[in-house]
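pinging the channel bc i need a second pair of eyes. not urgent but kinda urgent?? the chain im working w is below, pasted from the shared doc
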Amino acid sequence: MTNYKIKILKRLIIVSTLTIVLYFVISVGFYFISSRDVNTAVFEGFVFDKVTLKPISNSTIVILSERYESDLGQSNYDEFLGNDTIHLRSNTQGHYIGHIKKSAYFTIQIFKENYDPIITKGYYTRKRNHLNFYLKKRR
């Protein structure tokens, strides 16, 4: 084997090793960042008619929140041990706002008579969670 081929092989091994280490560090970092309960999470946004884009008042917003800490204060970051549910109503401008003491992951359900309901996918909780929704009228 020539010196040139040996240099290329060494560089390839170094780059591969660094890539694997970097992937591991990023994965572990992401795990620890996403596996925490957020204290005093705010959930707010607006509910609109999908066609007219006018605000929908008095719609029901249900936030289903899960957390790593149980009601007894025990934590396990491999699974959710506690959950909370809050029920909100949109005002005349379609605005809703609510707070949850601790949350790591949540889904939202929106209901209004004569409209199709919306059930969201799950989201990791941030300190402020701003989500707008557009409801479609039933036929």
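so Residues 3-34 form the longest helix (32 residues). and The domain at 37-135 is CATH 2.60.40.10 (Immunoglobulin-like). — does that match what u expected or am i reading it wrong
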